[in-house]
Amino acid sequence: MTFIILTGPPGCGKTDHLLRGIVDRPGSHLLAAPRTALLDEHAARLRGMAREAGISITIDPVHSGQSKRGGVFRRIETTLRQYDSTRHVVVLVTHEALLGLDPALLVGWSVGIDEVPDGSVASGAFSASTSWPALVRQYRLEPSDTERWWRVVPRDDIDPHSLGEITRGASDQTAFHRLILRGRPVHVDLSDWEQARDAGRRVGWLSLWTVAELSGCASVMLTSASYSTSLAGLAHRQLHGDTLAIQEIRVESAVSRARPLVRIHYYVSHRGSTAWWSTDDGSRCLVEISRHLEQSEFDGYWSCNTSVIDLFRHRIGGQQCDPRQAGTNLLRNHMSCAYIYSNKAQTSDTAILEVLGLGREAIVQAREYEDVFQFAMRGVIRDPTYDGSYDIHLYSEDQAIALRDRLIESEVTDHVEIVAVTEAGISEVTRPDTKRRAPQQMLDDRTMAERQEEERQRERQRGRDRRAAARERDIAAGTARGRGRPKKDAKTIATNE
Description:
Blueprint: E1 2-7, H1 14-24, E2 27-33, H2 36-53, E3 58-61, H3 72-82, E4 88-94, H4 95-100, E5 110-114, E6 121-127, H5 132-138, E7 139-143, E8 150-154, H6 163-168, H7 174-181, E9 187-188, E10 202-208, E11 219-223, H8 231-240, E12 246-250, E13 261-268, H9 274-277, H10 280-295, E14 301-304, E15 319-320, E16 336-340, H11 350-356, H12 360-376, E17 389-396, H13 397-409, E18 416-420, H14 448-477, H15 490-496
Parallel strand pairs: 1-11, 1-12, 2-4, 2-5, 3-4, 5-11, 13-17, 13-18, 14-15, 14-16, 16-17
Antiparallel strand pairs: 6-10, 7-8, 8-9, 9-10
Helix pairs in contact: 1-2, 12-13
């Protein structure tokens, strides 16, 4: 399989290059994009390209937004089999659908992936102290290539969970069961389900999907401005090293890129998080930001985390949109944007950090800063010929600095100004030192083995403490014995003899 990455800054034409290749090369093509709206957008562009070239091509998007009977995965499977021998066809699906497809269905197909799939790396943890017998009945565990992690395999003699059963079950297991139902490879950090019965024991799980899953395809082409630093790219390097060759092709814009002035406005010097924003001081920061944007008559496009949306809705003008906007061209008429957003490492990311050998800062880089860059690049500066000004509003100074560096590194522009918004009145607000939080509230960067060894040491100490307390009670009651084996009394000696 040939794995090609089309690189270059947003707006340089990576997606057009991908679509043009599909139109110009007869064969069976599958195209995956982040969202259903983007599938319809790509389908329209493909039809326009085909008309201009006078080419006959079958273009069939399949997604959940269509008024058609049957589940999405079943419709996709039926469509792929239907077109398997068609001379020139492209089936369009979402990233989520691609990650859940049986790779055997795509043998011989050419696969195009617009942007790095968000859900290709997933992890979490759940308690199964009472539900472990159900897991025994549903799944068996097999050794894997990753040390201390075991592959979860559905049993052939048991009907798989339905989506409804998954939704009705334990909420902390929903994502775990859903990925298995979708056919994703899932691993857990135990070799026997009975190990989960211990009170307080949480089962860590991990699912890593890489393009190696598509090794039976004719080719795989992916568009990305930062594949190597994405979680998908880091997983690829960790699991496959140099065994799966990658060919990078840089896409240059057809026109010379202008030098627009980008002003990045930030409100605070501390880092944001959804946990911080749930506090009084954290929520006050968000309220003051929304007031400032309202008073300044902001009219660009904007978004934020779902958990804080009510602090901004009906106050900010402009166009509200989803936080994830990678790939879209529908916002490029805007000359400003606001993105009050956090996507840092969570406790559920512990498995990712361990297996991929990452620190928490790598998660911030791969998720939060990448999302900020992609969101900011949806506006007018997506047009390489634009040479005016563009304003971006972010929560924190670290986000502003990371975005500035990324804009310059990606050659979008070298004319970037960072502006502290002092008039919002929150620039001096500081967060309590997160290192002082209780240990269970912190994300632990140690390996699982180190944590387990510490827990064993704690249990030994608890045992010593219990024995010491018992001895003190015996001493107080006058029943304490001396060191050594209990002495036999005369009656016992006589009986034994």
